[in-house]
Design brief:
Layout: H1 2-28, H2 34-42, H3 48-53, E1 61-62, E2 68-69, H4 76-86, H5 92-103, H6 118-153, H7 158-172, H8 175-186, H9 210-248, H10 251-258, H11 263-281, H12 283-292, H13 294-301, H14 307-317, H15 320-348, H16 354-357
Antiparallel strand pairs: 1-2
Helix pairs in contact: 1-15, 2-4, 6-9, 6-12, 6-15, 7-9, 8-9, 8-13, 9-11, 9-13, 10-11, 11-15, 12-15, 13-14, 14-15
């Protein structure tokens, strides 16, 4: 197992390098970079729409060598100073090499527009995203596993049919769309305001007692967590049902029943461990999936100051250090979680030997 882990850890390096390289190359062709945006701000045209579409930067024209120059009314020396301030006075390959060198020591640079170290920004936002992803993943498992087992045991019954309809609705409705529905219904959108619409803490909660702060935090977490759970439980429920159905139909289950074992003993003593192998070992991947995909839009809808909102704002502003820094952290975390998933396979079933498979 040790040699397998070493190989997997070494494989992280070229995978991480490849992902960062592809994204760096793609970003070089994206319009509306930080230089253009700064010039647009100086000219009074730095609206959000202009940042995304290039509108408001019509006076900033690219030249054949890939550099930008100011139109009439803007000193070309000022444009050169702006390019140097953002590091764009160097060619792209040199900037890429310098970025990789800094990333080896987790020096992710400074934000162009917030003037803060990227590591500090990520460290401040990480607890919000981790908290949202962890609670959502745990609740998805707590809902999906019992429901999937019940559907497998009652396969073909009315319960199975009606619960399948609920699963299909959860699968079809995206988490962010359900989040908007929750805001409309329960956060003062059009009906009642039982829950707060944004943030993780109420104003002035810093002076409250610790139990009151915990209750306030949980109160704020209800709607975003429910939105992610509804959008994520469907797939795991179906997977749980199929895994249990496959095991229930195997010969060892028939033999256990023939020996007089009760259904509860057969289900939870014999079937459960084999059926749960794929489900439990997939927990890290499920956590990363919720953290990377649905959590982004849910954070934006509920104004949760997490990594998703940070990355979204960085993409709008073309804040490249933050964009690549969050990408680096997300990718590294995802690759490491895949290795953790492999370790969970061996914990759930010690008979699995990755060395033998090699």
């Amino acid at each position: 197992m040790g040699a397998y882990l070493i190989r997997r850890l070494l494989l992280v390096i070229p995978t991480l390098f490849g992902i960062i390289t592809i994204n760096f190359v793609v970003v070089q062709f994206a319009p509306g970079g930080p230089v253009e945006q700064m010039i647009a701000e100086l000219k009074g045209g730095g609206a959000v729409t202009g940042r995304m579409t290039g509108a408001g930067t019509a006076e900033v024209m690219p030249v054949n060598d890939g550099h930008y120059r100011g139109a009439r009314g803007l000193d070309p020396h000022m444009v050169a100073d702006i390019r140097k301030m953002f590091g764009f006075d160097k060619p792209a390959p040199e900037r890429f090499v310098l970025m990789l060198r800094d990333y080896l020591t987790f020096n992710l640079g400074r934000s162009f527009f917030q003037d803060e170290p990227v590591v500090k920004l990520i460290r401040e936002k990480m607890p919000v995203s981790i908290s949202l992803g962890l609670w959502s993943t745990l609740l998805v498992y707590f809902v999906s596993i019992p429901l999937g087992i019940a559907k497998a045991v009652r396969d073909g019954s009315r319960f199975d049919v009606f619960s399948s309809a609920a699963v299909l609705v959860g699968y079809a409705v995206p988490g962010f769309l359900f989040a908007i529905l929750l805001v409309v219904l329960f956060a003062g959108g059009s009906f009642v305001q039982w829950f707060p619409m944004r943030g993780l803490h109420s104003m002035g909660s810093e002076s409250w007692s610790v139990p009151a702060q915990i209750v306030d935090y949980l109160w704020h977490m209800v709607l975003p967590t429910v939105a992610l759970v509804v959008g994520g439980f469907a797939g795991l429920t179906v997977l749980t049902k199929n895994c249990f159905l496959e095991e229930i139909r195997k010969q060892y289950v028939i033999t256990a029943r023939a020996k007089g074992a009760s259904e509860q003993r057969v289900l939870y003593r014999h079937v459960f461990r084999n059926a749960m192998l794929l489900i439990i070992a997939g927990f890290p991947a499920a956590f990363i999936g919720i953290l990377f995909s649905s959590a982004l839009l849910v954070e934006i809808i509920f104004s949760l100051d997490g990594l998703g909102l940070l990355g979204f704002q960085a993409a709008i502003q073309r804040d490249y250090p933050v964009m690549f820094g969050t990408l680096y952290v997300f990718t590294l975390l995802g690759l490491l979680m895949q290795i953790v998933g492999d370790l969970l396979y061996t914990v759930v079933d010690p008979r699995i030997d990755f060395e033998a498979r090699q």
